[in-house]
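User: Okay, second chain of the day. Same drill as before: sequence in, structure tokens out.
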Amino acid sequence: EIDTKALKHIFSVFRKRIAPKVKLMAIAKSNAYGHELVQYAQTMERFGADWLGVDSIKEALRLRKDGLKCPILVLGYTLPENIQLSTRYSIDLTISTKDGLAHCAKLTPREKQKLRIHLKIDTGMGRQGFLLEDMAKVTAFLKKHFLKETIAGVYTHFANAKNPSFPKETNEQISRFEKAVFLLNNAGFTPLRHACATSGTFLFPSAHFDMVRIGIGLYGLWPSKETEAAYEKSISLKPALLWKTIVGEVKTFPRGSGIGYDFTETLPPYSKIAI
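Assistant: Same drill. Structure tokens below.
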């Protein structure tokens, strides 16, 4: 069961954490972390989420075909043959490689007018993204092949933004991201800037920029024990999802009993288990 009242409370918690001008992206990727993609996205849109973030264009198309109007960003990789679909259904794509840009540049002029991409910058996560030292060549390519409106966003992801006692690495990532944004701005592009996920939204308000991306937090879960310890007295988060089942059998086992395939667990004395 998913408690929509709890979801609404959680949404309001994060909406109040950010400035009115800062947009809120609700992350619905991977079937909304098991909360059911379409219904969760519809709920977030109803609450006033500015954007939805999904893992794949398959998820984005599902939302569009179910009537979702909210701006959608595909956070994962999009196969070259599916890039054209994004222009047809008003879906923003993450592009994080030179090959990705090259595939986008092959679209027809009409398709390019409808193309919207968010550049992913790798500022220290070591995952998706252009490195800072590549940005001069990237911006030159962008100026040559794309309209300014095509570069709709630029973003990064923090590797270690979960502990308020150790901000050094995240501050370094913020600095590298700001340098990448400066290069884009200097080339005439003014994309939407976003960097913070759940923990970053709590711990690094200076990095809220134009939008924050809230995933695990919007489901009522803390991103780390350190973040919870820092904010649990002032912020109330409660999981919105409750698992229920039917118990078919209950039994008590003596000390040392093994249960499961390959006796996965050896039980302490008088353990009661439910099937």
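The mean pLDDT is 96.

User: Thanks, on to the next one.
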